[in-house]
Design a protein that fits this description.
Layout: H1 6-12, H2 32-53, H3 61-70, E1 73-80, E2 89-95
Antiparallel strand pairs: 1-2
């Protein structure tokens, strides 16, 4: 068995959760406005990278809801993320027994 390269890992994933890297250091402290302006670029790079290797992992809200249900979970609630309402979501779900 070979190791999982980035391409193989992302191709095998049903979905990917991404945490953004820190935008400050001990020496550099961007303002809240500067950090907010940088976020779309960071997200874009993450989404483009995942999409390049596994387009199916970058899906719409409806497609994600269907996929969650197909895996045996019930979607209890879908919330907007605070900084990107209507564009990014948090799915609250529970296993169907």
């Amino acid at each position: 068995m070979g190791s999982l390269s980035e391409r193989r890992l992302l191709a095998a994933a049903d979905a990917v959760l991404v945490a953004l890297p820190p935008t400050s250091t001990f020496e550099v402290r961007p303002t809240p406005d500067e950090r907010a302006a940088h976020r779309p670029e960071q997200r874009g790079v993450a989404i483009d990278s995942v999409h390049r290797y596994n387009p199916e992992a970058v899906r719409s809200r409806a497609a994600l809801t269907e996929s969650i249900r197909d895996k045996g979970f019930e979607v209890l609630e879908v919330r907007d993320t605070p900084d990107r309402p209507g564009r990014e979501f948090v799915f609250i779900s529970a296993r169907i027994d």
